[in-house]
Amino acid sequence: MLSEFDLIAKYFTRPTPNVTLGVGDDCALMTPAPGMHIAISCDMLVSGTHFFADADPRMLGHKSLAVNLSDLAAMGAKPFACTMALALPAPDETWLKAFSEGFFALADQHGCELIGGDTTRGSLNICVTVFGEVPIGQALRRDAAQVGDDIWVSGTLGDARLGLAAYLKEMSLDEATHLNAANRLHLPTPRVALGMALRGIARAAIDISDGLIGDLGHILKRSAKGARLDVDALPAGAMLAAQSQDLRRRFALAGGDDYELCFTAPPEKRSEVENAGKRSNVPVTRVGAIEAVAGVRLVDAHGEPVGIDAISFDHFNKK
Ligand code: ADP
Ligand code: MG
User: Are β-strands 226-230 and 113-121 bridged in parallel, bridged antiparallel, or unpaired?
Assistant: First the structure.
């Protein structure tokens, strides 16, 4: 059977020119560039909680890094390195090969080098930590929203939730729709280029992992503000767009796993925001505004209040 050290050497050791010292010693060594913050984030994927035990290993490799890169994107940071703590029930080489290929394919796209980690026997659990850099003073923080800011979202919302609904047999979809929605769920695209392009333009930002309304709520809380959201302006995903208005609104507002960015920017920066979207090849849509009064007020296209019992995902308070 493959030993722990052979496994690390075979599947998780790659050249790491970005850093001073990569896999193989007690610690990795990296040298921050002058004038840069190091942005650090860690996200864990647990079998049975974040994915099903039979999940496709290549997609899992992609997603375990993608969710972390999404956090760097939300901060406006440029990825350069990551570590991986991996608990595995057994050293299954077919699984390891596909998993590491999925992981490194995305890592290579973003110049994000695997510089260390830990490998142990246990129920399947993948914990990746990413390191990025962002010029001092330019990070897109959650506490920076100001009254009058526009609220924007990138890409489209809700298709990942539609994929989950189909998997859970909450609803049935035709085969092509199911497959496309499932890809949005399993293969999220972290909006790294957009996050970087928004430096100096956006004020607050967050990535939408638990649903827009809940994640926007984190910005509002940290910034001590409220918001108005136009539910009919929300960019529903291509698959979701074919569903009923109620489902469109719910999944766009509170479906999880989108990994789009929600950010605020002053109205005078509208054209700069749109250019940042164009430069990074991702649509950006204005969906509301930051207000002084706490809470989120949902309105329709005519500005009339909309009541939707939309809640975001919370691991400890499932409804
Ligand atoms: P230690 O005993 O000091 O914890 P390990 O034997 O766990 O070190 O790891 C040996 C080397 O392999 C270290 O450099 C560690 O960072 C790296 N490593 C372990 N697991 C992984 C992994 N899954 N991916 C990348 N590097 C890993
Ligand atoms: Mg160790």
Answer: unpaired
